[in-house]
Amino acid sequence: MDGRRVTERVRGTSGVRATARIAARADGRGGTALPVLESDGPLALRRTRGSGDEARIMLVGAMSGPLGGDRFAVEAEVGEGARLRVGSAAATIALPGQAKGEARYDVRIDVAAGGELRWLPEQLISANGSDLSVSTRVDLAAGARLVFREEQVLGRVGEEPGRLTSRLTVLLGGRPLLDQQVGCGPGAPGGWDGPAVLGGLRALGQLVVVRPEFVERTPAPRVLGETAVLTPLAGPAVLVSALAPDALRLRRVLDEALAELDG
């Protein structure tokens, strides 16, 4: 199915509600099928040319946002033996809106045993005056593979950031692998911009890589450049955490780390 659902509510005093859905399945011929590819309102999904047995999806923003009061969600399910790569066509910009209250962006991901997901969207930019809460939950079955990248930029060029709260939870076989939350901008807990947290830098990101072979050989912890570190997790996984002055240098650090892990 490849269609667009009617947005639940026109953007106004209560904001927009929109949920996009993806399901990937092994097609039995050495490839990956997409039986569910469901766009909704501002969340438009487009299938692009894949590579080998991997299917590729691009998330295209059909309108600005999320704005104040909006509720966006993306749900992705990867079945056994399927391989899926999800990216986005451009950065997501959180903006202030007419509706009062915070905006929400929820991501829910399930990957079955033997399935593989590479989640590689563009950056999230927290514009001045915005208030956005992001929640991501990834449920992995034992034997699943994951590459998950998350990048956040605090403010556009020359402006102060909005308020941004982001929580990432990754479970493997029903057990917590990673559960962390960060808050930045006006109203966030004190010290978020201090030397113990961001140290005045405005781009932060992380890379989570889960692979069954890490059970036998987990990459060693190490510092990557001046403001990044690779940390093994309590499972077949590693976390790369990075800070940078801008989005370009942040991406460079995370790309180099992923190339090394892939190699």
UniProtKB/TrEMBL annotation:
Molecular function, one GO term: nickel cation binding
Main location: cytoplasm
UniProt entry keywords in alphabetical sequence: Chaperone, Cytoplasm, Nickel insertion
UniProt-annotated location(s): Cytoplasm
Pfam entry (one): UreD
Signal peptide: none
GO cellular component annotations of the record: cytoplasm
Family to which the UniProt record says this protein belongs: Belongs to the UreD family.
Subunit details: UreD, UreF and UreG form a complex that acts as a GTP-hydrolysis-dependent molecular chaperone, activating the urease apoprotein by helping to assemble the nickel containing metallocenter of UreC. The UreE protein probably delivers the nickel.
Function: Required for maturation of urease via the functional incorporation of the urease nickel metallocenter.
Protein name: Urease accessory protein UreD
Species assigned in the record: Streptomyces phaeolivaceus
